[in-house]
Amino acid sequence: MKKFVFTLLAATALCSASAAELVRLPYAMASAAEKEMSGCDTIYTMPTANAEFPGGMDALYDFYFRNLPKEYEMVMSMSPNIILLKAFINDKGEIANAKVLRSFNPAYSDAVVSVTEKLPAFKPAVYKGHDVCSYRIIKLYFK
């Protein structure tokens, strides 16, 4: 009987642990550096509505096309030459920090980050009707 109760308790503990692992919060606490640069205590990873560039993704890509130096040729289709950016967008829609996650060329990365810092304000992410801080992943393809 004791063995059965112990097995039952162990199985319950395992189920509880796996259920807890499945729960994903829609936000994360901001690090000290993120809080200092943005003033946000919380960064939403699953907002109700993501941060949006005015005019949508086509307008965002057009901004990069117009503002990157001409030697950096962007393409709209898939290419092995990709730069993946993670941009922190505060609750006012301003980009507070852009970080390159993946790049095929450091010179291209520097150019993309400098253009990203010039982007106009986004429409901020929304969670339960309130503007919130969030991240936005931006993929750019080059020739």
Keywords:
143 residues, alpha+beta, seven-stranded mixed β-sheet, 4 helices, 36% helix, disordered N terminus
Q: Could you give a quick summary of the protein structure above?
A:
With 143 residues, the chain is of the alpha+beta class. It contains 4 helices and 7 strands.
Can you walk through the features of this model?
It contains 4 helices and 7 strands, in the order αβαβαβββαββ. With 143 residues, the chain is an alpha+beta fold. It has one domain. Strands 1, 2, 3, 4, 5, 6 and 7 form a 7-stranded mixed sheet that branches. The longest helix has 21 residues, at 2-22. It is globular and about 40 Å long. The N and C termini lie far apart (70 Å). The model is unreliable at 2-22 (pLDDT under 50).
What percentage of amino acids are in beta strands? 25-35%
Spans with pLDDT under 50 lasting ≥5 residues? Answer: 2-22
Which whole number gives the mean pLDDT? 82
Q: Report the sheet with the most strands, covering strand number, pairing sense and barrel closure.
A: 7 strands, mixed
Percent range for helical residues?
Answer: 25-40%
How widely separated are the two ends?
A: 70 Å
SSE layout and pairing:
Layout: H1 2-22, E1 27-29, H2 32-38, E2 42-44, H3 56-67, E3 74-75, E4 81-89, E5 95-102, H4 106-116, E6 125-127, E7 130-142
